[in-house]
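Quick one, T. Sequence first:
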Amino acid sequence: MRKEEIIRRIAKDSGQEEVSIKKTIESLLRVATEALESGEEIRFHNFGVLLPWKQTGRPARNPKTGTPVMINPRTSVKFRPGRLLMQALNE
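Structure tokens:
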């Protein structure tokens, strides 16, 4: 599902205008990105947790040429689902 579809569904469900929902979602994404950049976890009670984690640099190979390359260290994000989300998905 794309962001536009989420906006339409939330607007329909909440009775608010799509423009208002779009601004709210864009604000949420901006705030969440800033929090993850600063190393904070983002918790949605009973839904899940977004966790920033540092990946170390590591050797790899170019799949086309087989040439060894080094992957630079970077920050990535993990999602840990909450209990109620897991229950809903597995009913």
